[in-house]
Amino acid sequence: MQKVEIRVKGRIDEHWSDWFEGLTITHIDQDETILSGTVVDQATLYGLLAKLRDLGLPLVSVQPSEVAEQETTTP
Questions:
Q1: CA distance 34 to 27
Q2: Whose CA is closest to 35, among 54, 15, 7?
Q3: Residue 14 DSSP class
Q4: Which residues pair with 37 in a beta bridge?
Q5: Which helix (H) or strand (E) holds 71?
Q6: pLDDT, tens digit, for every residue of 1-41?
Q7: What are the structural domains, with CATH classification, of the chain?
């Protein structure tokens, strides 16, 4: 699993969260949106990027980071 933060130009309404694999949608200003959360693998990340491309939203940045082992285990 991998945490990811994707920034795009434009606004994505929060009701699209399910379509974006459950990522959290946050607006940081009038014309920029952050999608953040956990993806299961690189294929899922590439799928999300393809969806953004298909919507014509300009990509600003992608910040992936590994999920710590503690975060992936359940008590």
A1: 6
A2: 7
A3: G
A4: 4
A5: helix 69-72
A6: 899 999 999 999 888 889 999 999 999 988 999 999 999 99
A7: 2-69 (3.30.70)
